[in-house]
Amino acid sequence: MSAEPVLTISGLNVDYGTDAGAVHALRDIDLTLNRGEVLGLAGESGSGKSTLAYAVTRLLSPPGVITGGEVHYHRPGGDRVDILSLAPRRLRAFRWQELSIVFQGAMNSLNPVHTVHSQLTDVLAAHRPELRKRQRTERAVELLGLVGISADRLAAYPHQLSGGMRQRVMIAMALALEPEIVIMDEPTTALDVVMQRQILRRLVQLRRQLDFSVVFITHDISLLIEFSDRIAIMYGGRIVEQAGAAEIYRDPRHPYSDGLLHSFPALHGPRRELTGIPGSPPHLSAMPTGCAFHPRCGKAFDPCAGRVPLLAPPADGPGRAVACHLHS
């Protein structure tokens, strides 16, 4: 993994709606993905994880509107691309070739009336028109081999594949043009635990083999602890903590991060009590004042209800950042 950035997000804001009643879905998001890194993005449903993915890829549907901020892709060699300013034609070329996304529901993402062969080769035909039909088929076979699916499945329709196979086809499609960045939006949520681990192991192997960078989005922080290099925790449309995966696991600084960690059983060592997090995530149209987490936080004190904490390095923790008045 390199310290060279491949994707930088600065001050990103997203609203749903443009009138006086607009809902602020993302607020002041600052995030950096380094080349060759796996960056985990964790948080409960409604925290803004998928909205961030769709904003970065310019796939945000109305009434979602990017109201501020910058998103830059850094090509090898130093060239920088302003993703939010790309014209439609350049954006179409940019997607899949430089940055691709694996969506949460493979059955909804794959076309049910087209074969796997058709859907893989359509991507190649659209972006690599110089390839002949035979070459596109050979590449489709190669892609299925990368994700552990035999070539005879090319003729299959999505409904003829298991959930795990469909998800691996989506990963193969995302890797078809060898992008630098792959964003995975909860790709294993609908799968059983055994299949989740199989896909994650395959993903780790592919990353080492092809040297791409990954943003992996999930509500299950236990998955991220296993294979991420760094983890960013989101709550209420903001990032509340960023640190290395091992640091988050050993010493979470934000009470919300600690609550997420104690919401799943330990993979190793003695058994521990699962405490979870009391209450429910806030509705974005009625956010609490100050720190959005303070109504659910057992460590809240006077400043928490009045001031929004800034995401900054704690005094004793260089290399990480936390948005909590306990560490101001």
From TrEMBL:
InterPro entries: AAA+_ATPase, ABC_Ni/Peptide_Import, ABC_transporter-like_ATP-bd, ABC_transporter-like_CS, Oligopep_ABC_C, P-loop_NTPase. Residues 9-261 form the ABC transporter domain. It comes from the Bacteria. The keyword Lipid biosynthesis does not apply. Transmembrane segments: none annotated. The keyword Oxidoreductase does not apply. NCBIfam families: oligo_HPY. PANTHER family: DIPEPTIDE TRANSPORT ATP-BINDING PROTEIN DPPD, OLIGOPEPTIDE TRANSPORT ATP-BINDING PROTEIN APPD. This is ABC transporter ATP-binding protein. It comes from Streptomyces griseus subsp. griseus (strain JCM 4626 / CBS 651.72 / NBRC 13350 / KCC S-0626 / ISP 5235).
